[in-house]
Amino acid sequence: MTDDRAGRVAARLARHRVRWTAAAALVVAAGLVAVLATRPPAGVAEVESPLVGKQAPPIAGTTLAGAPFSLPGRPGRYVVVNFFASWCGPCQQEGPELVRFAFEHRRSGDAELVSVVFSDTPGAARSYQEQLGATWPSLSDPGGAIALRYGVRSPPSTFLIAPDGRVIAYVVAPVTAADLDHLLARARASRA
Fold first, then answer.
1. Which CATH class is domain 59-189?
2. Residue 120 DSSP symbol
3. Helix, strand, coil: what percent of the chain each, to 5?
4. CB distance 188 to 179 below 8 Å
5. Is 155 within 8 Å of 91 (Cβ atoms)?
6. Burial degree of 190 (CB within 10 A; 0-12, 13-18, 19+)
7. What's the per-residue H, E or C state across 22-38?
8. Strand bridging mode 111-117 / 138-139
9. Mean pLDDT by 10 residues, the chain (192 residues)
10. CA distance 62 to 137
């Protein structure tokens, strides 16, 4: 074989090797995307709280709309209690997810959402909730009494309360509708 022909054969083999390597990398990348896309959401990071497993502290007050509100008083339903503030960036991140969760569970009637204003003015909180499209009760917490009973130090903080009134989860981070659904499914599976 001449040097010229040997060079062409080597170049052709090199091109084939590059094509096969690129094809293999593409197959691996597609497989990785498929695995990640079909995997259940990563579990939300729960935080330890002395309230978990115990009866939830009562929540009573006036909503931002001026109506009286009291918890307990929601037999047979899970209740998500979310502490928020209009100035809180992570709260703004989770806001649309809370709207989605509330909408999905309003139809089934198995869970509801209650928000508590954390270290914010009622006017700013009301404006934020209206802009968000929140239709669930949002309570003022003048002086932070509710936050103190729940041990909340900063927003967003979210508690999941079982139908029997026990706190079953506490999250200090923005939550998604999928995170809340995961916590509900876990609670139902363990009959909490």
1. alpha beta
2. S
3. 45, 20, 35
4. no
5. yes
6. exposed
7. HHHHHHHHHHHHHHHHH
8. parallel
9. 66 64 52 40 71 92 92 78 96 96 90 95 95 94 94 95 93 94 91 66
10. 9
Question: Cα angle vertex 107, ends 103, 112, to 5°?
Answer: 60
- Which are the contacts of 45, defined by CB distance < 8 A and separation ≥ 6? 171, 173
Which tokens sit at 54?
């115990």
Residue spans of the domains in the chain: they are: 1-39, 59-189
Residues near 48 by Cβ (< 8 Å), separated by ≥ 6? 170
Is the pTM higher than 0.85? The answer reads no
- CA 46, chain centre distance (Å): 11
**Sign of the Cα pseudo-torsion (178, 183, 189, 191, in order):** negative
List the one residue out of 182, 128, 123, 178 whose CA is nearest residue 155.
128
What is the predicted pLDDT for the residue at 14?
Answer: 63
What distance in Å separates the CA atoms of residue 158 and residue 144, rounded to the nearest whole number?
Answer: 16
